[in-house]
Structure formats: structure tokens, C-alpha cells
Amino acid sequence: MNSQRRSRPPLANLETVCLVARHGSFTAAAEASGLTHGAISRRVGAVENWLGCPLFERHGRGVSLTCDGQRFLGRVEHAFDVIDAAADQWHQARKTPAVRLSVVPSFAKLWLLERLRSLEAGEPFIDIQVTTEHRNADVGAGEVDIALRYGRGGWTSIDAEPLMSETLYPVASPEVAARLAGADVAQMLAMPLLHDSDLTGWRAWCGAQGASLRPRARDRRFEDYTVVLAAAEAGLGIALARAPLADGWLARSRLVRVSDVEVECPLQYHIVTAKREKRPEVLEVIARLHAAVRAGART
């Protein structure tokens, strides 16, 4: 191996040669690069002196590559492509980790979004890409990295762990609450009940007082839980507050609690991932979600 390597022209000079070849003139290359015509000429001349042959034929309309210039430029551009590919691979490996998280819109609006920046912050910073949808995203198929599902758990083909349990109690607008002052459960059930697509919470609350509940024409169903709460504020009936999920909304709203009876909801939010999820950034987001729930429980 020859220990005395031949010196190379600076990369900036090689880039200038490529620039002149693309633009077809020293003047156009100077305008594109912000260098002077003289600087462009000196850089090209330095490479030609190093090679020992001309790269360009000079003519009145500009310059064109010589045969040697064409061959040399092809090798230089290939070398730059190799450098660019290596740099892209390095940046890809070191870029900010991202985790795709699927939630229903109501959970995003009531709990997640106000905590999102703190969930992303820390070491390392993690870009949490939130998708809001009512359907259950298929984590097993790689649609998202984490899904938050509301239910009893026990799903097959995925891993699930409880995140947040809920306590239920009825709330209504001040006007409706005034009419229900001192009312028993039977009198309350004479009012329209507001709920989303699942009656499990209302059945649990009524069952705790020995009352059964069947679907009724006067009740109102809304797909999104935040719309349920908005309907209660509008005086359309009685809704179930889901604590702690709805705590922030309730603190800012006109809604009034209309019964001291509260029950644990049979359903809760679960963190759902593909089987045997091991990616560090996914596990870190899961740990941060649990920490956020614990922090909320202490306040």
C-alpha cells in the first residue's frame, strides 16, 4: 500500500465543477452559488491542473464538457451520491423517534391533547403522532404503534394493559338540576338519559340502586362523549360524568352534579400494542402515559 497518497482537490472545487457543468457557463454558476466569476474560474482551473487535462471547452456561448470532463464528472457525481446516501442513512438513524398513537376523539379532546407536549418532552424527545378515530386501529397489522381502547379488556392477538379506570355520577344543566332537587332514582329516570354508543355506564349506575335500564325512545345517543356532555349543558337531559376523564370539562362547564351516588365503571381505557412489543420509544411512551395518569390522581 502506498503510504504517500495523492492529494485531493477540495470538495468545494469538485462541487463547483459539477455546478458549472449543470449551468453551462461560469457566469451562471457564479450567480447560482453567490461566488464571483473569478472564484469559479480559479476553482475549475485548480481541478484541471490537478488532473492534468481540461474539463471544459470554452466558447462564446459558455462552456461544454470535454470527453475527459464527461468521464471525470460521472465519477465525481457518483461519489457525491454515495456521500449523500451515507449522510441520509446516518440522519435517519439519529432522527427524532416517532410513535403513532390512535385514540377516540373524545379522549383526545378531554385528556390527551392538554398533556401531549409533556408526554413528548423528556429524554429522548418523542414525536407522538396522534390519530383520532372511532374505529379500533389494528395495532397487530402495524396501522399504529399504540391504541387506547375503551372496554373490559381480554382482547385476543394483541397485548393490552389497563391505563385509566373511571368513576361515574350523573350531571345536568343548572335548570334541569333544579327540577331534580331531592329526586329519587325513579324520578331521575323519567328524564331523558344522554349517552354514547354504549349503555354500560348507565346500566351500572342504575343497577347500583336496584333499578334496571332498557333502551328508551326518549333517551338521546351521540357517538362522541364530548357531544354527550354538550347536550347535557344544553338542557337535553342527564349525562354521566366520567371521572377523571371529564374532570377538566366539568370544571369549565355549567354542569351540576345531581346525585351523590357514584359507581366504578365496568369499562376502562387500556393501552393496546402488538404482541411482544419491544421498541424502546413505544415502551417509553407507555411509561409516560401511566405516569401522567398517576400524576392526575395525585392532584
UniProtKB/TrEMBL annotation:
Single GO biological process annotation from the record: DNA-templated transcription
Keyword Glycoprotein: no
PANTHER family on file: HTH-TYPE TRANSCRIPTIONAL REGULATOR, TRANSCRIPTIONAL REGULATOR-RELATED
Family stated for the protein in its record: Belongs to the LysR transcriptional regulatory family.
InterPro entries, alphabetized: LysR-type_TF_proteobact-type, LysR_HTH_N, LysR_subst-bd, WH-like_DNA-bd_sf, WH_DNA-bd_sf
SUPFAM superfamilies for the chain: Periplasmic binding protein-like II, Winged helix' DNA-binding domain
Pfam families: HTH_1, LysR_substrate
Domain HTH lysR-type: 9-66
UniProt-recorded name of the protein: Gcv operon activator
Top-level taxon: Bacteria
Taxon lineage: Bacteria, Pseudomonadati, Pseudomonadota, Betaproteobacteria, Burkholderiales
UniProt KW Protein biosynthesis keyword: no
GO terms, molecular function: DNA-binding transcription factor activity; sequence-specific DNA binding
Record key words, sorted: DNA-binding, Transcription, Transcription regulation
